[in-house]
Amino acid sequence: MKSFTFLFALFLILSACPSSSGQIVRGTAPGEIYIYCFWCFSETEPTTRWGIFHSLDNGQTLSVQYKREPGSILKSDSLSGTIYLTYGPKIFRSQDFGLSWDTVPTSAGNGFASGCLRGEIYKHSSDTYYPGLYRSVDFGETFTSVNPTLTLDQILDVGTQPGELYDYRWDNFDTLVLKYSNDYGHSFTKINSDTSILDPDTLMNYPIISRGTSPGEFYLIRMDVSTRYRIFHTFNYGGTYDYNYITQPCLDCTSDNQLITFTAGREPGSFYISRAIVDSISQNHTILCIDYSQDYGITYTTNCFDLDSTFTGIGDIPAVARNDLKQNYPNPFTGQTSIGFYLEKPAFAEIAVFDIRGNQLSTLVSGKTGAGMHQVTWNGRSDGGRKLPAGIYYYRFSVDGIPAGTKKAVILQ
Predict the structure, then answer these.
(1) Which range, of 9-13, 310-314, 397-401, averages the lowest pLDDT?
(2) Is the per-residue pLDDT at 102 higher than 90?
(3) Which pairs from 249-254 meet CB under 8 Å and 24+ separation?
(4) Could you give the CA distance from residue 227 to residue 29 in angstroms, rounded to a whole number?
(5) pTM to 2 decimals?
(6) Cβ atoms < 10 Å from Cβ of 82
(7) 52 closest CA partner among 79, 80, 22
(8) With contact defined as beta carbons under 8 Å apart, do 270 and 264 qualify?
(9) For 245-283, what is each residue's pLDDT tens digit?
(10) φ, ψ (nearest 5 deg) of residue 207
(11) Is the peptide bond before 332 cis (omega within 30 degrees of 0)?
(12) Does the pLDDT at position 171 exceed 80?
């Protein structure tokens, strides 16, 4: 086993403000990450702020929009630009990289994970009337019961292959059991990991799992009794762990107040740590640091941002644009592409495709459509089934006969 000690700054928390906290997740593009963070604005204005941060270069630069509502769990979809944020029973959803949001018409449950397939979400509930594990394949619009007996478990993450899930439970309140499913959660088998990794007497917090890029690969993060995070890495579904990284003690970390969060990236060996800390010199500025590794966590490069100085000019995240048309993805495309659109209320919706001369070629949506977020797939063909040549096309969105948006799509050879 190898060990790595990471040099964390002191975690000095302002008495006038609540502790900073947040979560980091991977995006879909190389080097893409999202960070949810809340922090106290400044000592002179002790107002808690919530932000969704986005980076396309491994955390070297950040873009941010503030959001009024706090959140608890941030997840990303396999569809580019789609992220979810839960708060209490609510699931907030964005399909434009966090610029606009709507609310999924269902409760979040007790556990939440987004899948490796587009639009796939898992949620776990211990509710008496709706217990067990549920799965959605339409970005949370509807959920189907998968395993109603899974009431005491907590979903940790999906795997790299469709149908894979990791979860855990406490047996007899003192034994931590990690479990794995490869059939979308219908059944689970126990992961026979080293018992010292699961020992609640030496590793005290709830486990965090972040999937890698290879089948059977994931990172397991635990906090020990000295409040140091330990990062274990496996290539064989937890049978053996290759590495053990140890952070310096975190002075204000508990299982419910994660000042340090983790995620594996989209590229082999990529791993990220986000840290929300208070400047130990001025003691009235919150610093967000992103540590990025390209070698499975052995070495890191770090970029830090003063949240109070750098991002004070950004306003609140606006409400979701009503009757909104999303950019298709992928774009340009070959084969097929997905187009999202949002309706404020039930209406007659139409999406039609035109060439650059204004000739209508295909009708993708035409009919009474319910409120909320929707997704339609275009195969690059006309209504008659003719494969359209490479080039630029436009798709137009109208609601009850009123134009509501036009976007450009590009077909490649």
Answers:
(1) 9-13
(2) no
(3) 250/8, 250/11, 250/223, 251/10, 251/11, 251/12, 251/227, 252/11, 252/13, 252/19, 253/11, 253/223, 253/227, 253/229, 254/205
(4) 33
(5) 0.68
(6) 26
(7) 22
(8) yes
(9) 666 555 444 433 346 788 999 999 999 988 877 665 555
(10) -75, 150
(11) yes
(12) no
Tokens 């569809």 correspond to 79
Q: Is the pLDDT of residue 68 over 60?
A: no
The answer to whether residue 10 scores a pLDDT higher than 50 is: no
Q: Is the peptide bond before 330 cis (omega within 30 degrees of 0)?
A: yes
What digits encode the pLDDT tens for the residues 339-353? 988 887 889 999 999
CA distance 93 to 77: 10
Q: Which tokens in the block code for residue 231?
A: 């990062």
Structural domains in the chain plus CATH codes: 5-310 (2.120.10.30), 324-411 (2.60.40.4070)
Q: What is the per-residue pLDDT for 314?
A: 46
pLDDT given for residue 395 in this prediction: 93
- Locate all alpha helices (DSSP H) within 253-404, ordered by sequence: 307-310
Place of tokens 């295909």: 362
Please compute, for residue 372, the number of CA atoms within 13 A of its CA located in the half-sphere on the CB side: 15
- Order across the sheet with 165-171: list the strands: 154-158, 165-171, 175-181, 189-190
Amino acid at 229: Y
Indicate the DSSP class of residue 327.
P
The dihedral formed by the CA atoms of 59, 63, 65 and 66, expressed in degrees to the nearest 10: 40
**pLDDT score, position 316:** 45
What is the spatial order of strands in the sheet that 121-125 belongs to?
Answer: 111-114, 121-125, 132-136, 144-147
Q: Do 40 and 48 touch, CB atoms closer than 8 A?
A: yes
Please report the sign of the dihedral spanned by the C-alpha atoms of residue 148, residue 149, residue 153, residue 155.
Answer: negative
Pick the most confident of 21-30, 64-73, 172-181, 305-314: 21-30
Full strand arrangement of the beta sheet holding 33-40: 21-26, 33-40, 48-55, 63-66
Distances (CA, A) of 323 to 186, 261, 328, 369: 37, 36, 16, 12
From the list 88, 63, 85, 65, the residue with the least C-alpha distance to 76 is 85
